[in-house]
DNA sequence: TTGAAAGCGTTACCAG
DNA sequence: CTGGTAACGCTTTCAA
């Protein structure tokens, strides 16, 4: 009794037999058309089409060592911020003849490393989005296989990241222009490189402009985290709040609303990412926008190039794309409120 | 000069040599542990671990005909509604030892079919989410490989779908209780089974409750589509609007706001899906909620079972999970406004 | 330009 | 319980 496996529908051998040529000729006619006589080639191609032949990816991978599959690993698939990245990556993967597999690390470095190791044998390379891994671990993976970082930069590793320096400067200048003198930065996970860049950029720009900024956190980079963070921000009493990302900003917004605090009357809020919803929350969110779909496409292109280079044992200098960011000013930021009369010290 | 392929790091042969046993024994020790003597097994496993052995998915797939890979195809990866489905599917895929590949059909039946055909040779089965294909095409795919439908039912095909009949009843009763007498349904794509169910359920419940409902559309199931749809709804003058999904509802909401129409003062709006953002738009959206992450998990479980059945040539009756839905009442629905004094006919 | 045949890494069958 | 050895389907030398 034959084993109950699903046989690969129609194989190259079927095509070869039907076309009256050797399998090697079929292989060539289909993958290296120029290495085959025109009439042979067309004949083979027709037969293949007629029979509905589809090459077995497994067999091809076994022979070539390449799977035509790319992996995209993210800390939180449900964060709308990543939707654009996923779509961009998926489209470009398809355009370059690749399949995209997806992995969620749940904001967890260990899970991310496990995911990479689990996926590694079956893919040609990795797109690591907002990786929570250490630089050392990333370098280690990068040494073993093609890796492109998105939203992260590590020396000597190919990457695509949004310009945080310019972005944070825009934010700070916007707030200063509105008369704010004290701001709070609600920090996300310490593992977030983008978060660290944001804090660094804000601190530096703030110093330059005489804005006092205090960092609170870390908080989980979600609406729930923003709820907590918003509470803490309220207690501090700054007139401007810069959240690690829009999810947190929206959470903070919710909390302000619940507490009867007017945004932007009493406090202004700024986020990062310009995610779905940032334009229709109440008030709409002022936020730093970047083109995630484009980043996804670029990242795939870079990764595909890396895979090819590896196959040829060549090595270009790693590319480092820094994509522009743009502050989208909406209703959540406004002029700083007039400072309250200072309470006499000791009168409490 | 050796070809520049990436060799599969450490193979079963390496392990066999190092452990002093045959490759077949290694294979068994690792995949059918009970078919091997305890001490041999443990020895082999240790050696494999020490060498960092990872089976080649390609080689395994070639031999067994199974890839341990599942595909999830969706009409729009960026619709937040699908985020939960993606996450649920991804988690359960991981839990069952599978890899999840993702495909976006861009609301296009032809693209969806192409995607399925493109992915088919490399996966064990398909999760078709909100498929835009015809029943006939789905049956055709289902005959050729394991398929689980999500958000769609087709006779004899395994599926997981939210209870639209109960859901639409809840919506209609809610509106009727608020005193609405005329409503508009803003339709999505005709290819959407869920959309057709929604219209059917609403019509039927409306008739029962004496609510007049008119259908407008079809519109693209996006915020942009909702903008257009909202305009049309305004022109019609009904007091309640039921949108194909939350994306459209939010678009309609935006348009109302822009037109100075009060929601829910002048018109109430109801959506479907309870997506991210439905709770913080202005006003928050009354919408029919379903558990997408759970649906994703269930769908993967069903698909894995199908794959196993196929391998054993067994065939259970196809499962049809209908998951409960729940109306989440928020600020976008309220009492119907008092009817305006009827204008005298002919006085225009 | 084409054919024959040697892998690629696993699994599964068949002996022993 | 274990070893040897065909497959699995394709690519890629190597010859002709």
Which percent range fits the helix content of chain A?
Answer: 40-55%
The separation of the N and C termini of chain A measures 90 Å
The CATH topology of the largest domain in chain A, please? Rossmann fold
**Class per helix and strand makeup of chain A:** alpha/beta
CATH architecture of the largest domain in chain A: 3-Layer(aba) Sandwich
Given this structure, which CATH class of the largest domain in chain A is correct?
Alpha Beta
Describe the structure.
The structure is a homodimer of 348-residue chains. The first copy, chain A, is built from 12 helices and 12 strands. Chain A has a 6-stranded parallel beta sheet, with helices on both faces. In chain A, strands 7-6-8-9-10-12 form a 6-stranded mixed beta sheet, with helices on both faces. Chain A folds into 3 domains: 12-64, 434 Repressor (Amino-terminal Domain); 69-162 and 292-324, Rossmann fold (3-Layer(aba) Sandwich), CATH 3.40.50.2300; 164-290, Response regulator (Rossmann fold), CATH 3.40.50. The first copy, chain A, starts with 11 loop residues before the first helix and ends in a 20-residue tail after the last strand. Mean pLDDT of chain A is 93; it is low at 1-5. In chain A, helix 2 (23-31) crosses helix 3 (38-51). The radius of gyration of chain A is 26 Å and the shape is elongated. By secondary structure, chain A is α/β, with parallel strands linked by helices. The interface between A and B is large, with 55 and 53 residues.
